[in-house]
Structures are given as structure tokens and as C-alpha cells.
Write a structure and sequence with these properties.
single chain, mainly beta, Immunoglobulin-like, five-stranded mixed sheet, about 10% helix, globular, disordered N terminus
């Protein structure tokens, strides 16, 4: 939420008319409209009933550069995944306690995909202007939070239009006259994000499979396993690239020397500035070793 290429503020949400090329929300890869936007599939070992589908949701966490987007995968009903994903986002229903939503509890009951557009129908006239305590920067990032989520669910890089009939074409004080595209990932996303292990997961055996995405100096992604405040294991993974976008990384960690118990897996960005740039980005996931 590496600190290079990060700004102190989230950029203005980007009207689709100003986007000439679609980019992957997490991995930053250029895609054609028919290609999936997510480079990572659901977390290893996850499963859901046949009437649900696993989708990426985007929430907000803290980084040295301020609030940024973090992704977690969730199972939602397969008959209306867009609406159900939006409901989790607006409710702030996160698995990771370090994450939150910038959205107030605003009911979204209908989202339609048509003519290369995701149309979000907003009932009523609530939150035309920003609620108390929401800055313009928060409003911009809230828009991106839902744009990233809906594009990830749809698995297609399409603009998002907010529809507010019979009221001002504004949401959180921002114009909704034009649709919004995803802003560049390096400007709104954490520079490191853990996909696996999932928050609260149970791990058996001698190996912990860890994975995620990152943009870290020289593609080095340091990791730690902590028990409380004590670092009990550490090492690093190597991502598939760095600098221009977020790249996948994965590693298998030998946990055979650890006793059963509660632990935290931490992924960080490499920090060649030695803290002068605000320090590394990090993501953490609590897990139980059986």
C-alpha cells in the first residue's frame, strides 16, 4: 500500500474516456477486453460449494505512502457475483483485520454488464456529497476500490459507470457523468500483497506454500514468520519482475522446525533506502500451524 513510484496521495479516479490502454489491477499487465484481469487464481487449498464462485475483493490498508488497496479472495453466490461482491465491499466485510472499506454502508442492489460497461445502479440520493470525515483522497480511493473489485469479478477490463437517476450526477462529491477506469496499480495498490496463506487458515505438514504479488527492489520479496513479536523464520522469495507493475511471487517455506501454534506470515518489499523512503510496504496473514 519498494516505495519507489508511489505518491503521497491517491490519484484522481480516472474517467474511462482518458484511458487508452487497460491494465491489470494487481499485476499491471496490458490486457485485451477478452482476457482475464486477474493473474493469480484463488488461493491454494480454497474451495467453495458448487453454487458459489471465488472472486477478488479489494479493501484498504495502511502503507508508508498512506492508504492503498489490498486484495483478498472470497466466495460469493454464483448467480449474482457482482452485487454480492459489492455488498461485501460496502459493508467492509474483510477477513483480514488490517483491512477496511472506505465505503459507507450504501446499498447497491443492481449491477449490469452491457455494451462494454459495468453499470452500477445507486438507489436514492444518499452520499451525493462526501460524508463527514471522508477526504477527497478517500473518495477517489473508494471509487477505485469498487472499480478494481467489479473488474476482477467480471474478469474483464471494462469501465464502471455509476447511475443515479433523478438526482445529481455525483458520488462522494465526485462527478459520475463519465464512467471510471482503474487507476495504475502502482499508484493505488500496496506494493506487496499476500494471496496465500489466507487470514486465519490452518496449515498442516512441514511446508507452508506462500504466494502473492509485489513490486519490490530487484524483485526481492523478503518474508518473515513471527510468533508474537519474535521472528522465528525469515527468508525471501523472488518475484517474476519489478518496477513497472506488480508481479507474482511464490515460495515454499520449511516449517518443520516450528512447534504447532499461532503464527503470522509477513511479506515485505525490499527497502534499499534503509527507511528513508518511509520504510517497506508489508502485508500480514495470521495462520495456525497444526
Amino acid at each position: 500500500m519498494g516505495a519507489a513510484a508511489c505518491s503521497q496521495e491517491a490519484p484522481d479516479s480516472t474517467p474511462a474516456s482518458q484511458e487508452s490502454e487497460a491494465t491489470d489491477p494487481q499485476a499491471g499487465e496490458s490486457t485485451s477486453p477478452s482476457e482475464p484481469v486477474e493473474t493469480s487464481t484463488e488461493p491454494a487449498g480454497s474451495s467453495e460449494p458448487a453454487d458459489t464462485v471465488t472472486v477478488p475483493l479489494y479493501f484498504v490498508g495502511e502503507t508508508p505512502q498512506g492508504p492503498r488497496l489490498f486484495r483478498e479472495f472470497r466466495a460469493v453466490p454464483s448467480d449474482k457475483p457482482l452485487v454480492e461482491a459489492a455488498a461485501l465491499v460496502t459493508a467492509g466485510d474483510t477477513l483480514d483485520p488490517d483491512y477496511r472499506s472506505l465505503w459507507p454502508l450504501l446499498e447497491i442492489t443492481e449491477i449490469s454488464a452491457t455494451d462494454g460497461l459495468l453499470l452500477v445502479h445507486l438507489p436514492g440520493d444518499g452520499f451525493t456529497e462526501r460524508p463527514d470525515g471522508m477526504s477527497k483522497q478517500d473518495a477517489e480511493l473508494a471509487i477505485q476500490q469498487l472499480v478494481y473489485t467489479l473488474q476482477g469479478v467480471q474478469q474483464e477490463r471494462v469501465p464502471v459507470q455509476f447511475d443515479r437517476p433523478d438526482t445529481s450526477a455525483r458520488l462522494f462529491g465526485l462527478s459520475t457523468e463519465s464512467p471510471y477506469s482503474n487507476a495504475p496499480a502502482l499508484e493505488v495498490s500496496s506494493m506487496v500483497n499476500i494471496t496465500s496463506p489466507e487470514q486465519g487458515s490452518a496449515v498442516g505438514g512441514d511446508t507452508l506454500a506462500a504466494s502473492g504479488v509485489a513490486s519490490s527492489f530487484e524483485a526481492t520479496v523478503p518474508w518473515e514468520i513471527r510468533q508474537g513479536e519474535t521472528v522465528v523464520l525469515e527468508g525471501f522469495a523472488t518475484a517474476e519482475g519489478w518496477m513497472d507493475k506488480l508481479y507474482p511471487w511464490e515460495t515454499d517455506v520449511d516449517v518443520s522446525t516450528l512447534a504447532p501454534g499461532d503464527y503470522t506470515f509477513v511479506a515485505l518489499t525490499s527497502d534499499p533506502s534503509d527507511g528513508e523512503g518511509g520504510g517497506p510496504h508489508e502485508d500480514t496473514k495470521d495462520f495456525v500451524l497444526n
